[in-house]
Design goal:
The protein has a domain at 12-40. It is built from one helix and five strands. It has one helix at 55-68; strands spanning 9-14, 23-24, 31-32, 38-43, 51-53. Strands 1-4-5 form a three-stranded antiparallel β-sheet. Strands 2-3 form a two-stranded antiparallel sheet. It starts with 8 loop residues before the first strand and ends with a helix.
């Protein structure tokens, strides 16, 4: 895992028209293609470790993070 479950993160939504590059989602290991809306997740304490996630993958990860920190 690239960030601990209790590390604070900032999440920014990227609109499809803003998505100009291809990224690999760490949640599913599939590509996020240009023109596909997605989430950029930035660990507050380590902004260089930001990752681009499919919105659905990040939603599932968020549920896991909230369950593990309870």
């Amino acid at each position: 895992m690239w960030a601990r479950d209790d590390d604070p993160v900032e999440v920014r939504h990227v609109q499809p028209y803003q998505a100009l590059k291809r990224y690999r989602c760490p949640g599913c290991d599939h590509l996020i293609e240009p023109g596909q809306g997605h989430e950029v997740v930035v660990p507050v304490d380590h902004p260089v470790d930001r990752r681009h996630w499919h919105t659905g993958c990040w939603t599932r990860q968020t549920r896991r993070r909230s369950r593990s920190s309870s």
